[in-house]
User: Which sequence fits this backbone?
């Protein structure tokens, strides 16, 4: 089975899919000629029906994080990810059911077409409108950079582009496709392609599940095969082609592997078993001669260990995936062996020895997915775009079934995938989905090569469907919330039309430039931006539509306070330090407490809210 | 103008607002039940160790939860219910409640959710 290149049949099928996306954009562009441009371009005329609402919502929620970042975490940490993602069991009901109907009604009362629009009108506060718009610009741009990275990886790996320039070219190709169809087609193109992409994602996962699991011997063998895997650690260092997988031999007790700088007199690398203070088990110590005089290649360590019977009785070495061992080694902190049980139980184990999913984070992530989803403006805007209550009701049921078919099967697929494609270092684990689909499935025969295109299209679709709606959200923020509502209310429709096209394109190009630097673990950026959005938008929106006592001052304090906590708690990450996990909880929990708390306290102090606002939004008219 | 009830002379609350609030309260209660059950089952029966989080700022909630070493799982105790390839703690802590949530969501949408009229869209009204 050749898994170093993608089958050409897969590439051709994938290109046909991209063509289909362009055709949809072209058709939807024709709708822009009917009705008001602004409402049509940014909201699709508030006419979404059940299936389009369901898939528009699901496809936006199912981002590159779900199809690239989440699989990478499963690949790295195993079954604990089923617990990590568990609140998706209730996600559609929370994210669509709590705010959906009421938010849609409030938006209709003022003709709002963006979420800052809703908040500005509900609280009669242009300041709140501008503040929330700025927040959208900040966090959406961060998220888009991560999504563009995911898109670039998919193109790079699918088209077998060389590592030296493949990412850059992949990025340009991805950006061109998504910017053109989003700018040209607007909201309706985004929704239609979301439906297409949602179907592709669903089919991709449903078919990929039995194909991959059968490769490891079926469902019955999956856990057993994982249990039989030797303890291992993939050492990955800055630079290319130096990633080594160390596999611990049976009955050997070693804590991990450490690369240390040896004395200046050392002229060749040396491997020793050494004790470390505070550790019960010894470590394998790789002493490196000074790099400036005698650089050590990864492949030398393999030769060294294989030629020494004492060392080879302890560990066996493999080159990590797509790695020829020619790269240079450098001193590196201790990386611990990951034992197979860590892959099957919580809390999951990181190579630095820390637990992946301790109790505080377990509670936080259950809150994170289902509750913070309610506060994502990219999804809230779908909730002001549907046609009637029946549409919402049906869409919740559809999305519930849809997510069930995606998120748990992905855990099966990527725990099995870690057996089929072993030794991808954590820093490159974001490639696991594409490599598994394009290379492993694509190499199984002609029919599978076509299927592989569907599997590659699934994450590509996930990324595109998120990027297109986020691009549109940024351009609507600039054109509608800043330009039309703040600077020039009497702007002509023709000007708006061109401003929308140009803004969407310019934002897309800017994000492409920002994404040209590669980033590790896409999922962490997705989590940061989701937290920021939720802590800014959820409390003012929720309290604004359900609590008569919420005042303008309360809403501004709530949005600013939640945002402030998130930025403050994530601030240390700018210096490569860990974020502040107060008491072990994720910052999103504290951000939401601050946001809701400030909203209620400040509203109590500044209330009551004006009578005419309460009449307009809470009383029968 | 708001409509006022004859008895109290107080304006009547919008029925959609009342229905949506009633539905929101139930949904949040279901979410909270899922949180308690899933985190409880998975943390108590699915973890090899119940150590405090070393990356926590300040006292970790894992410490406040008290010593739970008695619940540490032994790797060899792992079961695979029905041979579906899913560890037992995931099956009971995530898979089973997920199935129940599908049924509850279906019930909620078909029997509890009220199909309220969303009212006119001001933007469309103005366009006309």
Assistant:
């Amino acid at each position: 089975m050749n898994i170093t290149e993608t089958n050409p049949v897969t590439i051709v099928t994938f290109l046909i899919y991209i063509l289909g996306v362009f055709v949809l954009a072209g058709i939807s562009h024709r709708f822009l000629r009917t009705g008001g441009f602004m409402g049509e371009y940014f909201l699709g005329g508030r006419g979404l029906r059940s299936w389009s609402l369901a898939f528009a919502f699901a496809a936006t929620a199912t981002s590159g994080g779900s199809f690239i970042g989440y699989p990478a975490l499963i690949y790295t940490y195993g079954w604990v990810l089923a617990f990590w993602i568990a609140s998706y069991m209730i996600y559609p009901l929370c994210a669509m059911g709590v705010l959906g109907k009421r938010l849609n009604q409030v938006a209709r009362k003022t003709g709002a077409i963006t979420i800052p629009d809703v908040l500005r009108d509900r609280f009669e506060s242009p300041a709140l409108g501008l503040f929330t718009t700025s927040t959208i610009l900040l966090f959406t741009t961060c998220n888009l950079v991560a999504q563009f990275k995911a898109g670039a990886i998919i193109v790079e790996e699918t088209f077998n582009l060389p590592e030296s320039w493949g990412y850059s070219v992949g990025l340009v190709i991805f950006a061109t496709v998504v910017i053109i169809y989003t700018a040209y087609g607007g909201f309706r193109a985004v929704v239609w392609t979301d439906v297409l992409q949602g179907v592709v994602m669903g089919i991709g996962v449903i078919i990929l599940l039995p194909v991959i699991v059968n490769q490891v011997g079926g469902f019955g063998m999956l856990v057993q095969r994982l249990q039989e895997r030797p303890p291992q650690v993939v050492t990955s260092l800055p630079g290319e082609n130096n990633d080594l997988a160390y596999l611990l031999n049976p009955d050997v007790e070693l804590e991990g592997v450490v690369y240390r700088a040896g004395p200046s007199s050392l002229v060749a690398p040396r491997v020793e078993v050494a004790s470390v203070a505070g550790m019960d088990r010894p470590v394998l110590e790789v002493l490196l001669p000074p790099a400036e005089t005698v650089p050590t290649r990864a492949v030398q360590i393999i030769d060294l260990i294989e030629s020494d019977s004492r060392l080879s009785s302890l560990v066996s070495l493999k080159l990590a995936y797509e790695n020829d061992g020619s790269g240079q080694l450098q001193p590196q902190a201790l990386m611990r062996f990951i034992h197979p049980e860590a892959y099957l139980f919580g809390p999951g184990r990181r190579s630095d020895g820390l637990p992946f999913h301790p109790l505080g984070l377990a509670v936080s992530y259950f809150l994170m997915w289902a509750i913070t989803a309610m506060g994502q403006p990219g999804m809230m805007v779908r909730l002001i775009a549907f046609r009637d209550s029946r549409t919402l009701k049906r869409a919740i049921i559809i999305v519930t079934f849809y997510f069930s078919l995606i998120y748990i099967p992905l855990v099966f697929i990527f725990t099995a995938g870690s057996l089929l494609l072993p030794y991808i270092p954590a820093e490159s684990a974001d490639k696991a989905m594409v490599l598994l689909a394009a290379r492993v499935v694509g190499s199984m025969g002609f029919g599978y090569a076509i299927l592989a295109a569907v599997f590659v299209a699934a994450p590509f679709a996930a990324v595109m469907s998120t990027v297109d709606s986020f691009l549109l959200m940024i351009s609507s923020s600039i054109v509608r919330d800043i330009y039309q509502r703040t600077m020039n209310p009497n702007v002509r429709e023709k000007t708006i039309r061109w401003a929308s096209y140009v803004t969407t394109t310019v934002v897309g190009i800017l994000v492409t430039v920002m994404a040209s630097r590669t980033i590790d673990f896409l999922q962490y950026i997705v989590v940061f931006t989701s937290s920021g959005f939720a802590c800014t938008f959820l409390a003012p929106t929720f309290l604004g539509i359900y609590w008569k006592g919420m005042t303008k001052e309360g809403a501004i304090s709530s949005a600013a306070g939640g945002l402030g906590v998130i930025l403050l708690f994530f601030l240390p990450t700018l210096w490569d330090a860990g974020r502040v996990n107060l008491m072990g909880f994720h910052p999103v929990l504290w951000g939401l407490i601050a946001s809701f708390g400030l909203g209620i306290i400040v509203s109590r102090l500044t209330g009551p809210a004006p009578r005419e606002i309460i009449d307009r939004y809470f009383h029968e008219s | 103008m708001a409509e006022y009830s004859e008895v109290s002379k107080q304006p009547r609350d919008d029925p959609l607002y009342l229905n949506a609030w009633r539905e929101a309260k139930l949904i949040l209660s279901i979410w909270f039940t899922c949180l308690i059950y899933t985190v409880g089952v998975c943390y108590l029966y699915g973890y090899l160790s119940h150590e405090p989080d070393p990356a926590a700022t300040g006292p970790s909630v894992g410490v406040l939860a008290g010593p739970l070493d008695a619940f540490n799982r032994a790797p060899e105790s792992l079961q695979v219910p029905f041979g579906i390839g899913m560890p037992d703690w995931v099956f009971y802590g995530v898979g089973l409640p997920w199935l129940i949530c599908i049924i509850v969501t279906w019930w909620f949408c078909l029997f509890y959710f009220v199909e309220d009229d969303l009212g006119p869209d001001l933007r469309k009204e103005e366009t006309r």
Q: What stands out?
A: The CA atoms of residues 37 and 93 of chain B lie 7 Å apart. The mean pLDDT of chain B is 88. Residues 15-49+63-116 of chain B form one domain.
